[in-house]
Model the fold of this input.
Amino acid sequence: MQPLLDIRNLQVAFVAGGSSVPVVRGVDLQVERGEIVGLVGESGSGKSVTCMAAMGLLDGNARLSGEICWDGQPIPSQDDRAMSRLRGNELAMIFQDPMSALNPVQTIGRQLFEAIRLNDPDRRGRQALKERALQLLGHVGVPDPEQRLQAYPHQLSGGLNQRVVIAMMLAGNPRLLIADEPTTALDVTVQAQIIELLRQLRDQRGMSIILVTHDLGVVVQACDRVVVMYCGQIVESGPVEVVFRSPCHPYTRGLLASLPRFDSDDDTLMAIPGMVPPPQELGVGCAFAPRCPDASAICRSSMPTNQFAEAGHSFACFFPTTVPSNRVPSR
Ligand SMILES: Nc1ncnc2c1ncn2[C@@H]1O[C@H](COP(=O)(O)OP(=O)(O)O)[C@@H](O)[C@H]1O
Ligand code: SF4
Ligand SMILES: [Mg+2]
Done:
Protein backbone atom coordinates (compact mmCIF):
# COMPACT_ATOMS: atom_id res chain seq x y z
CA MET A 1 0.00 0.00 0.00
CA GLN A 2 1.15 3.54 -0.77
CA PRO A 3 2.07 5.76 2.18
CA LEU A 4 -0.66 8.27 3.10
CA LEU A 5 1.76 11.15 2.56
CA ASP A 6 4.76 10.67 0.30
CA ILE A 7 7.16 13.60 -0.17
CA ARG A 8 9.93 13.03 -2.70
CA ASN A 9 12.98 15.20 -3.21
CA LEU A 10 11.29 18.32 -1.84
CA GLN A 11 13.29 21.49 -2.45
CA VAL A 12 12.12 24.85 -1.17
CA ALA A 13 13.94 28.14 -1.72
CA PHE A 14 12.88 31.64 -0.72
CA VAL A 15 13.40 34.45 -3.20
CA ALA A 16 14.35 37.84 -1.80
CA GLY A 17 16.15 40.81 -3.36
CA GLY A 18 16.89 38.94 -6.58
CA SER A 19 18.57 35.97 -4.89
CA SER A 20 17.19 32.58 -4.01
CA VAL A 21 18.05 30.90 -0.69
CA PRO A 22 17.46 27.12 -0.48
CA VAL A 23 16.10 26.11 2.94
CA VAL A 24 14.74 22.62 2.24
CA ARG A 25 17.21 20.57 0.24
CA GLY A 26 15.99 17.24 -1.09
CA VAL A 27 13.67 15.96 1.64
CA ASP A 28 12.09 12.49 1.28
CA LEU A 29 9.43 11.94 3.90
CA GLN A 30 6.78 9.24 4.07
CA VAL A 31 3.97 8.92 6.58
CA GLU A 32 2.03 5.67 6.84
CA ARG A 33 -1.59 5.34 7.94
CA GLY A 34 -1.93 5.49 11.71
CA GLU A 35 1.74 6.37 12.17
CA ILE A 36 3.13 9.11 14.41
CA VAL A 37 6.31 10.56 12.92
CA GLY A 38 8.48 12.86 15.03
CA LEU A 39 10.25 15.57 13.02
CA VAL A 40 13.15 16.93 15.08
CA GLY A 41 16.08 19.27 14.71
CA GLU A 42 17.27 22.61 16.05
CA SER A 43 15.50 25.82 15.16
CA GLY A 44 16.02 26.75 11.50
CA SER A 45 16.38 23.14 10.25
CA GLY A 46 13.45 23.47 7.84
CA LYS A 47 10.87 21.47 9.80
CA SER A 48 8.08 24.06 9.57
CA VAL A 49 8.82 24.90 5.93
CA THR A 50 8.58 21.17 5.03
CA CYS A 51 5.20 20.94 6.80
CA MET A 52 3.90 24.17 5.27
CA ALA A 53 4.91 22.83 1.82
CA ALA A 54 2.87 19.66 2.44
CA MET A 55 -0.11 21.84 3.46
CA GLY A 56 0.30 24.15 0.45
CA LEU A 57 0.65 27.08 2.84
CA LEU A 58 4.04 28.52 1.86
CA ASP A 59 4.46 32.26 1.32
CA GLY A 60 4.35 33.65 -2.24
CA ASN A 61 8.14 34.13 -2.29
CA ALA A 62 8.71 30.36 -1.91
CA ARG A 63 9.88 28.32 -4.90
CA LEU A 64 9.11 24.63 -4.57
CA SER A 65 10.09 21.53 -6.52
CA GLY A 66 9.78 17.79 -5.98
CA GLU A 67 6.69 15.65 -5.65
CA ILE A 68 4.12 15.45 -2.87
CA CYS A 69 1.65 12.56 -3.14
CA TRP A 70 -1.44 12.18 -1.01
CA ASP A 71 -2.93 8.69 -0.79
CA GLY A 72 -1.09 7.72 -3.97
CA GLN A 73 -2.08 10.82 -5.96
CA PRO A 74 0.22 13.80 -6.66
CA ILE A 75 -0.95 16.94 -4.81
CA PRO A 76 -1.17 19.77 -7.32
CA SER A 77 0.59 22.35 -5.16
CA GLN A 78 -0.22 25.11 -7.64
CA ASP A 79 -3.95 24.31 -7.56
CA ASP A 80 -5.25 26.41 -4.67
CA ARG A 81 -8.79 25.00 -4.83
CA ALA A 82 -7.60 21.39 -4.71
CA MET A 83 -5.28 22.26 -1.84
CA SER A 84 -7.94 23.99 0.20
CA ARG A 85 -10.26 20.97 -0.31
CA LEU A 86 -7.52 18.73 1.10
CA ARG A 87 -6.89 21.09 4.02
CA GLY A 88 -9.59 20.72 6.61
CA ASN A 89 -10.90 17.53 5.01
CA GLU A 90 -7.90 15.26 4.86
CA LEU A 91 -5.05 17.33 6.23
CA ALA A 92 -5.01 19.64 9.23
CA MET A 93 -2.28 21.56 11.00
CA ILE A 94 -1.95 22.98 14.50
CA PHE A 95 0.71 25.38 15.72
CA GLN A 96 2.65 26.24 18.87
CA ASP A 97 0.35 29.13 19.76
CA PRO A 98 -3.31 28.03 19.78
CA MET A 99 -4.31 31.71 19.68
CA SER A 100 -3.07 31.87 16.08
CA ALA A 101 -6.01 29.61 15.15
CA LEU A 102 -8.61 31.21 17.43
CA ASN A 103 -10.47 34.48 17.12
CA PRO A 104 -10.10 36.37 20.43
CA VAL A 105 -13.42 38.21 20.07
CA GLN A 106 -15.60 35.18 19.34
CA THR A 107 -16.79 32.56 21.82
CA ILE A 108 -15.40 29.04 21.63
CA GLY A 109 -18.90 27.84 20.74
CA ARG A 110 -19.27 30.18 17.76
CA GLN A 111 -15.86 29.15 16.40
CA LEU A 112 -16.57 25.46 16.85
CA PHE A 113 -20.00 25.78 15.19
CA GLU A 114 -18.34 27.50 12.23
CA ALA A 115 -15.74 24.70 11.90
CA ILE A 116 -18.52 22.09 12.07
CA ARG A 117 -20.67 23.91 9.47
CA LEU A 118 -17.71 24.20 7.10
CA ASN A 119 -16.99 20.49 7.22
CA ASP A 120 -20.52 19.16 7.60
CA PRO A 121 -22.88 21.48 5.67
CA ASP A 122 -25.84 19.11 6.25
CA ARG A 123 -25.68 19.67 9.98
CA ARG A 124 -27.91 22.68 10.49
CA GLY A 125 -29.70 24.20 13.46
CA ARG A 126 -28.30 25.28 16.76
CA GLN A 127 -29.18 22.08 18.59
CA ALA A 128 -27.43 19.81 16.06
CA LEU A 129 -24.35 22.03 16.01
CA LYS A 130 -24.26 22.15 19.79
CA GLU A 131 -24.50 18.37 20.10
CA ARG A 132 -21.58 17.92 17.70
CA ALA A 133 -19.54 20.64 19.42
CA LEU A 134 -20.05 18.99 22.82
CA GLN A 135 -19.10 15.64 21.32
CA LEU A 136 -15.89 17.10 19.87
CA LEU A 137 -14.97 18.86 23.11
CA GLY A 138 -15.59 15.54 24.90
CA HIS A 139 -13.22 13.75 22.48
CA VAL A 140 -10.40 16.12 23.32
CA GLY A 141 -11.02 15.99 27.07
CA VAL A 142 -12.28 19.54 27.72
CA PRO A 143 -14.02 19.52 31.13
CA ASP A 144 -17.41 21.31 31.54
CA PRO A 145 -17.90 21.58 27.77
CA GLU A 146 -21.32 23.31 28.04
CA GLN A 147 -19.77 26.16 29.97
CA ARG A 148 -16.76 26.39 27.64
CA LEU A 149 -19.00 27.02 24.65
CA GLN A 150 -19.88 30.42 26.15
CA ALA A 151 -16.26 31.29 26.99
CA TYR A 152 -13.81 33.45 25.05
CA PRO A 153 -10.28 32.13 24.35
CA HIS A 154 -8.67 34.49 26.88
CA GLN A 155 -10.80 32.89 29.62
CA LEU A 156 -9.21 29.46 28.97
CA SER A 157 -5.69 28.22 29.74
CA GLY A 158 -3.18 27.61 26.92
CA GLY A 159 -3.66 23.84 27.27
CA LEU A 160 -7.47 24.11 27.02
CA ASN A 161 -7.22 26.42 24.01
CA GLN A 162 -4.91 23.89 22.30
CA ARG A 163 -7.54 21.19 22.98
CA VAL A 164 -10.22 23.45 21.48
CA VAL A 165 -8.09 23.95 18.37
CA ILE A 166 -7.65 20.17 18.07
CA ALA A 167 -11.46 19.79 18.44
CA MET A 168 -11.95 22.29 15.58
CA MET A 169 -9.53 20.27 13.44
CA LEU A 170 -11.39 17.04 14.24
CA ALA A 171 -14.61 18.57 12.87
CA GLY A 172 -13.21 17.77 9.42
CA ASN A 173 -12.12 14.20 10.34
CA PRO A 174 -8.58 14.71 9.00
CA ARG A 175 -6.53 11.63 8.15
CA LEU A 176 -3.25 13.44 8.85
CA LEU A 177 -2.65 16.00 11.57
CA ILE A 178 0.53 18.04 11.38
CA ALA A 179 1.31 19.37 14.86
CA ASP A 180 4.09 21.97 14.72
CA GLU A 181 5.56 22.33 18.23
CA PRO A 182 2.03 22.01 19.69
CA THR A 183 3.22 21.85 23.30
CA THR A 184 6.24 24.17 23.29
CA ALA A 185 4.30 27.03 24.92
CA LEU A 186 2.73 24.79 27.58
CA ASP A 187 4.00 23.68 30.98
CA VAL A 188 5.36 20.15 31.36
CA THR A 189 2.22 18.55 32.86
CA VAL A 190 -0.12 20.01 30.23
CA GLN A 191 2.42 19.10 27.53
CA ALA A 192 2.24 15.44 28.62
CA GLN A 193 -1.58 15.57 28.54
CA ILE A 194 -1.68 16.96 24.99
CA ILE A 195 0.83 14.34 23.82
CA GLU A 196 -1.34 11.64 25.41
CA LEU A 197 -4.38 13.12 23.61
CA LEU A 198 -2.58 12.92 20.25
CA ARG A 199 -1.70 9.28 20.89
CA GLN A 200 -5.34 8.53 21.76
CA LEU A 201 -6.51 10.19 18.55
CA ARG A 202 -4.16 7.95 16.61
CA ASP A 203 -5.25 4.82 18.51
CA GLN A 204 -8.99 5.55 18.30
CA ARG A 205 -9.24 7.09 14.81
CA GLY A 206 -6.21 5.63 13.05
CA MET A 207 -5.14 9.20 12.34
CA SER A 208 -1.56 9.77 11.13
CA ILE A 209 0.39 12.52 12.86
CA ILE A 210 3.56 14.45 12.07
CA LEU A 211 4.73 15.80 15.40
CA VAL A 212 7.29 18.57 15.00
CA THR A 213 9.32 19.14 18.13
CA HIS A 214 12.79 20.04 19.30
CA ASP A 215 12.23 17.86 22.39
CA LEU A 216 13.50 14.29 22.02
CA GLY A 217 11.69 13.36 25.24
CA VAL A 218 8.39 14.12 23.46
CA VAL A 219 9.49 11.95 20.52
CA VAL A 220 10.14 8.98 22.81
CA GLN A 221 6.76 9.37 24.50
CA ALA A 222 4.69 9.87 21.38
CA CYS A 223 6.30 8.69 18.17
CA ASP A 224 6.78 5.48 16.22
CA ARG A 225 9.40 6.86 13.89
CA VAL A 226 11.81 9.77 14.14
CA VAL A 227 13.13 11.94 11.32
CA VAL A 228 16.08 14.17 12.19
CA MET A 229 16.56 17.33 10.11
CA TYR A 230 19.58 19.59 9.87
CA CYS A 231 20.00 22.56 7.51
CA GLY A 232 17.10 21.57 5.29
CA GLN A 233 18.07 17.91 4.93
CA ILE A 234 17.13 14.67 6.64
CA VAL A 235 20.29 13.36 8.28
CA GLU A 236 18.85 10.29 10.01
CA SER A 237 15.53 8.50 10.29
CA GLY A 238 14.11 5.24 11.56
CA PRO A 239 12.06 3.58 14.29
CA VAL A 240 12.38 5.58 17.53
CA GLU A 241 13.84 2.71 19.57
CA VAL A 242 16.42 1.84 16.91
CA VAL A 243 17.62 5.40 16.23
CA PHE A 244 17.78 6.38 19.89
CA ARG A 245 19.60 3.22 20.99
CA SER A 246 22.02 3.15 18.05
CA PRO A 247 22.24 6.62 16.48
CA CYS A 248 24.52 6.63 13.41
CA HIS A 249 24.76 10.36 12.67
CA PRO A 250 26.93 12.62 14.86
CA TYR A 251 24.13 15.23 14.89
CA THR A 252 21.61 12.74 16.30
CA ARG A 253 24.23 11.69 18.86
CA GLY A 254 24.70 15.34 19.79
CA LEU A 255 20.95 15.86 20.24
CA LEU A 256 20.75 12.76 22.41
CA ALA A 257 23.73 13.87 24.47
CA SER A 258 21.80 17.05 25.25
CA LEU A 259 19.14 14.97 27.02
CA PRO A 260 19.43 14.28 30.75
CA ARG A 261 20.71 10.78 31.55
CA PHE A 262 18.20 8.57 33.27
CA ASP A 263 20.56 5.83 34.45
CA SER A 264 23.24 7.73 36.32
CA ASP A 265 23.91 10.61 38.67
CA ASP A 266 25.90 12.36 35.96
CA ASP A 267 23.63 15.20 34.94
CA THR A 268 26.03 17.11 32.69
CA LEU A 269 24.32 18.07 29.46
CA MET A 270 26.51 18.26 26.40
CA ALA A 271 25.16 20.84 24.04
CA ILE A 272 26.30 20.63 20.42
CA PRO A 273 29.01 23.28 20.01
CA GLY A 274 28.43 26.10 17.53
CA MET A 275 25.28 27.29 15.82
CA VAL A 276 23.10 26.20 12.91
CA PRO A 277 24.59 28.11 9.95
CA PRO A 278 22.23 30.42 8.04
CA PRO A 279 21.05 28.78 4.77
CA GLN A 280 22.82 31.36 2.58
CA GLU A 281 26.18 30.32 4.09
CA LEU A 282 26.01 26.59 3.33
CA GLY A 283 28.92 25.19 1.32
CA VAL A 284 29.21 22.13 -0.92
CA GLY A 285 30.01 19.51 1.73
CA CYS A 286 28.20 18.12 4.75
CA ALA A 287 26.32 20.97 6.44
CA PHE A 288 27.20 19.61 9.89
CA ALA A 289 30.98 19.56 9.21
CA PRO A 290 31.79 22.86 11.04
CA ARG A 291 30.29 21.44 14.26
CA CYS A 292 31.12 17.76 13.83
CA PRO A 293 33.77 16.08 16.03
CA ASP A 294 34.34 13.43 13.33
CA ALA A 295 34.65 15.71 10.30
CA SER A 296 37.52 15.14 7.86
CA ALA A 297 38.53 16.60 4.49
CA ILE A 298 35.99 14.65 2.42
CA CYS A 299 33.15 15.95 4.62
CA ARG A 300 33.98 19.54 3.59
CA SER A 301 34.22 18.80 -0.14
CA SER A 302 31.43 16.26 -0.74
CA MET A 303 27.85 15.79 0.40
CA PRO A 304 27.18 12.44 2.11
CA THR A 305 24.27 10.52 0.56
CA ASN A 306 21.65 8.46 2.29
CA GLN A 307 22.67 4.98 3.47
CA PHE A 308 20.66 2.19 5.06
CA ALA A 309 21.69 0.70 8.38
CA GLU A 310 18.91 -1.80 9.06
CA ALA A 311 15.16 -2.15 8.64
CA GLY A 312 13.83 1.33 8.04
CA HIS A 313 16.90 3.02 9.58
CA SER A 314 18.91 5.35 7.34
CA PHE A 315 21.45 8.14 7.75
CA ALA A 316 23.61 10.48 5.66
CA CYS A 317 27.19 10.51 6.97
CA PHE A 318 30.61 9.38 5.72
CA PHE A 319 31.73 8.20 9.15
CA PRO A 320 28.71 6.79 10.96
CA THR A 321 29.02 5.35 14.42
CA THR A 322 26.73 3.09 16.31
CA VAL A 323 27.69 3.91 19.86
CA PRO A 324 24.75 2.71 21.94
CA SER A 325 23.13 5.67 23.65
CA ASN A 326 22.39 5.53 27.36
CA ARG A 327 20.51 8.80 27.33
CA VAL A 328 17.25 7.44 25.98
CA PRO A 329 14.46 8.43 28.34
CA SER A 330 11.95 5.66 29.05
CA ARG A 331 8.40 5.95 27.69
N1 LIG B 1 8.86 33.10 4.61
C1 LIG B 1 10.18 32.93 4.67
N2 LIG B 1 11.03 33.70 3.95
C2 LIG B 1 12.37 33.53 3.99
N3 LIG B 1 12.98 32.59 4.75
C3 LIG B 1 12.20 31.79 5.51
C4 LIG B 1 10.77 31.92 5.52
N4 LIG B 1 10.26 30.98 6.36
C5 LIG B 1 11.34 30.30 6.86
N5 LIG B 1 12.50 30.80 6.35
C6 LIG B 1 13.85 30.29 6.64
O1 LIG B 1 13.87 28.91 6.35
C7 LIG B 1 14.73 28.23 7.27
C8 LIG B 1 13.97 27.07 7.88
O2 LIG B 1 12.96 27.62 8.70
P1 LIG B 1 11.90 26.71 9.50
O3 LIG B 1 11.34 25.68 8.61
O4 LIG B 1 10.94 27.66 10.12
O5 LIG B 1 12.81 26.02 10.61
P2 LIG B 1 12.34 25.15 11.87
O6 LIG B 1 10.86 24.97 11.81
O7 LIG B 1 13.08 23.86 11.74
O8 LIG B 1 12.78 25.91 13.06
C9 LIG B 1 15.18 29.27 8.28
O9 LIG B 1 16.48 29.67 7.92
C10 LIG B 1 14.19 30.38 8.11
O10 LIG B 1 14.77 31.62 8.42
S1 SF4 C 1 29.68 13.42 6.96
FE1 SF4 C 1 31.48 14.02 8.12
S2 SF4 C 1 31.01 16.08 8.92
FE2 SF4 C 1 29.10 15.17 8.22
S3 SF4 C 1 28.26 14.31 10.03
FE3 SF4 C 1 29.37 12.66 9.02
S4 SF4 C 1 31.43 12.73 9.93
FE4 SF4 C 1 30.41 14.64 10.48
MG1 LIG D 1 9.40 25.61 13.17
